[in-house]
Amino acid sequence: MNWRTFERLETIWQWMERRRFARWVLTLLAIDLALLVAGYGPLRWMDMRLRADMQAAERDVRATRQALLEWHSALQRVQRAQRTRDDLLYRQFLPEDRGFPTVRDALERMAMQAGLRLQNFTYTHEAVRVPPVQSLSIQFSLTGGYEQIRRFIQSIETAPQFLILESIRLRSSQQGGGVELELALRTFLVRRDGEE
Fold first, then answer.
1. Is the domain of 100 the same as that of 60?
2. Claim to verify: residue 117 and residue 74 sit in the same structural domain
3. Residue 174 CB partners (closer than 8 Å, separation 6+)
4. Comparing C-alpha atoms, which of 173, 191, 190 is closest to residue 182?
């Protein structure tokens, strides 16, 4: 073999090697392209699915946040209602252990200020459906002038204790010149926490 033939063979070989390399590169590019196309569909589907899941999660978070705000608002209303209940029970109603003496003393003081005297004082306790509360009914009579009785009734209506006038009966006094008043009052006593 001569040198030229050898060069030609070498050129052919190089050309074939380049073609083989080019084929190899083209094959790899084709495989990459095929994988990209084949993988893009599932990736796109996964992306759409993830976006849908994220939107659903955001909706759930908004709904949960709204429910939490409503629950918090309801809790605040319940706490306000409990404070109002406690205010009514523990500030307006008298304690059960000293309720009757307090009411009796207050009524006697009001009668004295009006120029009257209490007579025939009786009372009864009654259970109420609200557990810590007990009803106290009080009956008594007074004798005096009309103006004195009016001042006494007005002092009952403006008393700091929670007093309800249930009945009033007026009649002429047998002792002359006055009016006899028979009153029935009701108030409520509350059992403080820890009392039995």
1. no
2. no
3. 180
4. 173
Single residue among 59, 92, 125 that ends a domain in this structure: 92
In the chain, the percentage of residues whose pLDDT exceeds 70 is: 80
The structure tokens listed for 71 are 């629950």
Query: What whole-number distance in Å separates Cα of residue 158 and Cα of residue 107?
Result: 12
- More confident position, 89 or 146: 146
CB atoms within 10 A of CB 160: 8
Residues 79, 101 within the same domain: no
Tokens describing residue 111: 């009668």
In three-state secondary structure terms, 21 is helix
Residues 75, 154: one domain?
Answer: no
pLDDT (tens digit, 9 = 90+) per residue, 173-196?
A: 776 667 888 999 988 887 766 544
Same domain (yes/no): 75, 19: yes
Cα-to-chain-centroid distance, residue 97: 32
Confidence of residue 86 (pLDDT cuts 50, 70, 90): confident
Q: For residue 7, tell me if it sits in a domain.
A: yes
Token pair 């007074």 is at which residue?
A: 142
Extract the tokens encoding 40. Answer: 């893009």
195, part of any domain: no
Q: What is the rounded CA–CA span in Å between residue 176 and residue 64?
A: 77
Task: Give the total number of structural domains in the chain.
Answer: 2
| Residue 87: pLDDT over 50 | yes
Domain that holds residue 7: 1-92
